[in-house]
Design brief:
Length: 272
Amino acid sequence: MGALLSFRDVWVEYGDLIVIERLSLDIEEGAFVSVIGPSGAGKSSFLRLVLGQDAPSRGSITLDGVDLKPECEPDRGVVFQRYSVFPHLTALGNTMFGIECAKAPFVAKLFGGGRREAIAQAEEMLEAVGLGQSKDLYPSQMSGGMQQRLAIAQALITRPRILLLDEPFGALDPGIRSDMHELITRLWRDYGLTIVMVTHDIEEAFGLGNRVLTLDKWRLDPHAPHRFGATVVYDLALGRKDKKPSLKSEPEADDASIERTVSNTIDMNSNN
């Protein structure tokens, strides 16, 4: 099977500042890739490249073998740490908005049969994320966990192939966070998604992903700290037989030791 996403010698530069350098990797369809690394290691820049929000300064990125356009397309959905929902719309209206923009880009409003179909799709998606009984609530009437479920429904309503998660659970309480982990794992399997998740939480990275990428700088120049950029320093396929994480069991021994090694490396580099 060929790669869904391919990076070939990708660089991201802003003048004299090098953020990412010599990044080459493939991401297979159906993977759950966790991206970790110290602050300033280019994790958000990497996510923006996949989203199409930024273009590489050098190198190439392809999706299904075709050059990835520097545009945000419906085949890629994104969920941020801060809830990206519209306060003036109900949960149903928020979820429908993506369909309305896609089918009526000039007015973002559907009528007749098209609107009824959009409502049915939005209600189905809200049921999938556990908000079926909350479709008439506004974001101000919802908890943080409910708002993040709504943001996920927004991202999935256009049926993207790739779901990008940018620290999506960092602001949630531990109990709610655990529920969201269960939700995103179920949606990954049910919808056949390819997920790329940026997180600072090592345990979350290994608990959810079936592949962990660590971004960091191979080289450091104390006299010119921005001279060198980050790249992939660890690329770990986790040792589960089915490559599907189980959040109710402990990682295998090899995975646990790898997690400790990566965590220690990141901690040391963060203190430099």
